[in-house]
Write a structure and sequence with these properties.
The chain is α+β, with helices and mostly antiparallel strands and 188 residues long. The chain has 2 domains: 14-59, no CATH class; 75-184, Alpha-Beta Plaits (2-Layer Sandwich), CATH 3.30.70. The chain has helices at residues 13-16, 19-37, 92-96, 137-141, 167-174, and strands at residues 75-77, 102-108, 120-128, 147-149, 164-165. It is elongated. The termini are far apart.
C-alpha cells in the first residue's frame, strides 16, 4: 500500500490572525440587523412577520400555511372506512422507535369474531410525547399503514401524564384513513 504525502498549504498572515475573520462575521451580522430593522429581511413577507426580522409572533400567527407536505408531526393511529383498527400489534414500531416512546400490549381477538384471522390487536397502545423525536420510523415500518405522523406540531400538556397518548387519544387524533389495508384484505 502506497502512502501519499499531502503538503498542507501555507497560511498567510491574515489567515494566522483571527481578527479579519471576526470582522467579516460582525459585518455580515450588522448587515442583517440593519435589513431587519428596515423591514427588508429575507423571507419576512412569506412568514407574515411582525416587521422586525422574520420572527413569527407564535400564538397569533401559526405555521400552518407554511408547513411543507413532508413535515412530520404528532404520531397517531388510524382506522379504516368501517372504523376497524388497522393495527395488528406486530410491535415493529415499538422495536424500531429510537427513544423507546411507544409501548404496546397485544391482545387477542376472540375466535367467534368475523376478523379472527388477524389474531391480534392492541390491548394497550401508548406513545410518550415527551420522548418522541418525530423521526417517522414508526410510520415507515408499519406493514398495515396503521400509524401516521400528522402535521400537528403544537402538542402541549401541563403534566407528564397528559403527554402520554393512550390508544383512545391516538385514534381521536388519527381519525379514518381511506385506502388499501393489508389486515382486512381477504387474499391475505
Amino acid at each position: 500500500m502506497a502512502y501519499i504525502k499531502i503538503k498542507r498549504p501555507e497560511l498567510s498572515l491574515a489567515d494566522k490572525l483571527y481578527v479579519p475573520a471576526i470582522i467579516k462575521g460582525l459585518w455580515l451580522t450588522f448587515k442583517h440587523a440593519v435589513a431587519s430593522v428596515r423591514g427588508k429581511s429575507q423571507g419576512g413577507k412569506d412568514m407574515a412577520s411582525s416587521g422586525l426580522g422574520i420572527t413569527m409572533q407564535y400564538p397569533e400567527q401559526k405555521w400552518d400555511e407554511h408547513l411543507p407536505e413532508y413535515y412530520r408531526g404528532v404520531p397517531a393511529l388510524v382506522t379504516d372506512e368501517q372504523d376497524r383498527e388497522r393495527c395488528v400489534s406486530c410491535q415493529l414500531c415499538e422495536f424500531i422507535c429510537p427513544p423507546k416512546a411507544i409501548k404496546i400490549i397485544p391482545g387477542e381477538i376472540p375466535s367467534d369474531d368475523e376478523w379472527a384471522k388477524v389474531e391480534k390487536r392492541p390491548k394497550e397502545f401508548e406513545i410518550d410525547m415527551t420522548r418522541c423525536i418525530y423521526c417517522g420510523m414508526c410510520e415507515e415500518v408499519c406493514p398495515e399503514q396503521a400509524i401516521y405522523l400528522r402535521q400537528d406540531y403544537a402538542v402541549t400538556g401541563l403534566t407528564r401524564k397528559e403527554m402520554v397518548n393512550d390508544k383512545k387519544r391516538l385514534y381521536e387524533i388519527g381519525g379514518k384513513r381511506i385506502g388499501l389495508v393489508n389486515k382486512w384484505n381477504e387474499l391475505k
